[in-house]
Amino acid sequence: MVYKVTFFLSVAPERFLTLVPSKEVNGNFMIGEGDIFVVPFRCRGRSGVFGYRVFCAKVTNLTEWLVNLNEQSPIQFTAVEYDVMIPKDWISDLKDRPLLQAIDEVRGLYRSMNGINIVVVDQYLNLQLRAEKGKGTLEFLKESMRSLDVLIGIEDFEKESELHGRLRTSS
């Protein structure tokens, strides 16, 4: 189970190492002991900004790192995702759930009532929240993490992430 956050930053990948203490591995960046993995990507149609995807298993590590990075250079978040492993029989039950709207059952695309996109992929669900254009602030990150954590069963996000208060004051 892994969080994936997609964002844009005005810092080029070549300068990323000076902004964030990390180790470069095949053009990607490993933060700390490998808890956080950053993959830069090309942005088409966006000048002066660079795209990054961050992968991390623990919300606390990811949240702390993103808040610190945002303090150094403002981040524009575009998506927060989480992959959840599920039993095969649960997937077939998905279409019978009243709180989900089928977007395309053949391709396994659904949307929950709180706006979370759900994509069925083999033995797991990919849960996605996308920021509206110009609304990808730390507030979007905070609300996305809260929505995903409620959906995946982390009942008390305040206890899970001590940095939740920092998100409130940093946005």
UniProtKB/TrEMBL annotation:
Keywords: Plasmid
Domain of life of the organism encoding this protein: Bacteria
Descriptive protein name: Uncharacterized protein
